[in-house]
Amino acid sequence: MSQNDERFADLEGVIESEADLAELVAAPMPEAIAKVVDHIDDVCRAFIAKSPFCLIASANPDGHIDVSPKGDPPGFVRVLDDRRLAIPDRPGNRRVDTFHNLLRDPRLGMIFLIPGKTETLRVSGEARIVRDETLRRSLAYKGHEPHLAVVVYVERAFVHCPKCMIRGSIWKPEAWPASDDVPDLRRAMIRQAKLDTTPAALEAKAERAGVTKLY
């Protein structure tokens, strides 16, 4: 099916095949292909152990795609063995979009970041949502055990090129843009959901509902 439908009809040069793409983008270095591993090796273990933040991508059969951020002290994602890792589920807004997606399509992708390091680690595989008591106890932080955890069976992993981080100057505070004019979460919710309330009232409601606690 052609991708050049009416939604993109005003654009010229829409790429519609791998052959078209190959004419514009040179083939990757063989080393860039060979670096992909199908397990959690020493390089992956070292990266995951120092990472306090990752992004999880998931999708469902309806085509809905979601990317969810996860953060905790470095090493919060636990390597269980050479093929599996575990991600604790900390309190959030209770949307659990990733969980809903995984119940319908268990595949996911992850990107791990380490502050100050320009390389990232990409991991993908198949996941399950689990309640294993021993595992949840091992993932506790400050005495708080997660109610759930995601266990990923790793199928692909590799360290990614640092160019995007370098271009974005993401770890250089002097290059960060001013963001005072970007709405915070409360104001964004009010605007996008067209709520008849105030930021203070919305914050108070969230606190009463218990969705503002970290652990």
Describe the protein in words:
The model has no long low-confidence stretch (mean pLDDT 95). The protein has 215 residues and is an alpha+beta fold. It has eight helices and seven strands. 28% of the residues lie in helices and 24% in strands. The termini are far apart. Strands 2-1-5-6-7-4-3 form a seven-stranded antiparallel beta sheet, covered by helices on one side. The longest helix has 11 residues. The radius of gyration is 20 Å and the shape is globular.
List the keywords:
215 residues; single chain; globular; seven-stranded antiparallel sheet
Shape: globular
The biggest sheet amounts to: 7 strands, antiparallel
Count of separate DSSP helical elements: 8
Mean pLDDT: 95
Spatial separation of the terminal alpha carbons: 47 Å
Order of helices and strands: HHHEEEEHEEHEHHH
Question: What structural class is derived from the secondary structure elements?
Answer: alpha+beta
Give the total of beta strands.
Answer: 7
Low-confidence stretches: none
Helix content: 25-40%
Assembly classification? single chain
Write the SSE topology:
Blueprint: H1 18-24, H2 30-34, H3 42-50, E1 53-59, E2 65-71, E3 78-79, E4 84-88, H4 97-104, E5 107-113, E6 120-130, H5 133-138, E7 149-160, H6 163-168, H7 185-192, H8 199-209
Antiparallel strand pairs: 1-2, 1-5, 3-4, 4-7, 5-6, 6-7
